[in-house]
Design goal:
single chain, 366 residues, alpha/beta, Rossmann fold, 2 domains, 4-stranded antiparallel sheet, 3-stranded parallel sheet, 11 strands
């Protein structure tokens, strides 16, 4: 989300003007949202690899030297006590991790009325934002701020949120330096419409893909009872008494699971577990196989080893894990599952129909 060149090129004064214009634009926008109150405070936090960004601005001939961008940051910070332009350092994804952590921190604080998130040029945010999108409505606590055009995968996720743009404040094309020192803009490429799950049933069964170098050693995938794919994905999820998402145990085939790991099978989780893939025939992952129910449950079991971003996820199609598989025995200091996804209370379990909102207590097997 680079600021327009006219602000950055003016250093100290440009930074102050950029921050004031942004705060004013946000206030005008938030006044139109249902949760706005006249005494609300706006907190602005910008994170960037500032040394790398300054070099990019200089290479693009927007600033004559790096110190101009340093002055821009100082001006931005001086504009208001709650406006921060922060150097996240040059470690890979340092700025991304801070943005995501702050997003989750404020979103889960119910004193926070609204979050405006700017990261429109980076498609990697699609997976991060997806769990916050309501399945049948727009999440009115989140607005996605578009600068450069949303990439195709983020564009689909963005439909679950409010959207706005401030073209007088942020560039509408990416900041990219090409060999002659000029600037080029890039935009997302439109992908074909989603391919329906029913198409998989119409294909003849196909063997699992195997790396060419190991074809001679590969064995056929273990057989499993042939069960039909479910025609409709269930809207039901399970929660505990505190609203935390629960992942019910799955009946899975250990031999087939080992086969998935051994041959690094690239089965598309979206296609097989969510019912559709937004990339259709252009997806880099495998859509070609017909899986029976036991194989699907095994694939889902494998998918759950990756953590969802929300312990309170209400997306019934979410294939990711919401409980650490090690639960009370986890001793990994940097476990990818959130702290609240450990030691989950399952003394009371509720079945929730996300389509109707019905919530009923169910018995837990001893």
């Amino acid at each position: 989300m680079p600021f327009v060149d006219a602000f950055v090129s003016r250093g100290l004064q440009g930074g102050e003007d950029a921050a004031k214009h942004l705060r004013s634009a946000l206030l005008d926008y938030l006044k139109k949202t249902p949760r706005y109150h006249a005494d609300d405070r706006i907190v602005i936090r910008v994170y960037a690899n500032c040394r790398g960004l300054a070099k990019t601005y200089r290479a693009a001939k927007i600033i004559p030297e790096d110190s101009v961008f340093e002055q821009f940051m100082i001006g931005f910070n001086n504009s208001h006590p709650l406006s921060d332009y922060i150097d996240a350092g040059n470690r890979k994804e340092a700025a991304d991790s801070k943005l995501k952590a702050n997003f989750e921190l404020f979103y889960r604080n119910f004193h926070c009325q609204h979050v405006v998130f700017g990261g429109s040029a980076d498609s990697s945010y699609a997976g991060f934002l997806s769990p916050f999108a309501a399945p049948t409505a727009v999440n009115d606590r989140i607005t996605l701020l578009e600068g450069p055009a949303f990439p195709s995968d983020l564009k689909k996720v963005a439909q679950g949120f409010r959207q706005t743009s401030f073209p007088d404040i942020f560039r509408t094309v990416k900041l990219q330096v090409i060999p002659n020192g000029s600037i080029a803009g890039t935009a997302g490429i439109k992908r074909p419409a989603a391919e329906p799950l029913v198409a998989a049933r119409e294909r003849p069964p196909a063997p699992l893909a195997t790396p060419v170098s190991t074809i001679a050693k590969a064995q056929a995938p273990p057989a499993a009872p042939q069960l039909p794919l479910p025609p409709v994905l269930s809207p039901t999820i399970f929660q505990n008494q505190y609203g935390q998402r629960l992942d019910p145990p799955l009946n899975y085939d250990r031999k087939y699971l080992q086969h998935l790991y051994d041959y690094n099978s690239k089965l598309c989780n979206n296609f097989y577990l969510k019912g559709h893939c937004p990339y259709g025939n252009t997806c880099e992952w495998d859509h070609s196989q017909v899986l029976n129910q036991l194989q699907l449950d095994t694939l889902r079991h494998k998918a759950r080893t990756s953590a969802c971003r929300s312990a309170f996820c209400t997306d019934p199609q979410c294939p990711l894990g919401h409980m650490c598989p090690r639960n009370g025995t986890c001793n990994i200091s940097l476990c990818k599952f959130l702290p609240e996804m450990h030691h989950i209370d399952t003394s009371q379990v509720y079945e929730v129909n996300t389509a109707t909102g019905e919530r009923k207590k169910v018995a837990v097997p001893a």
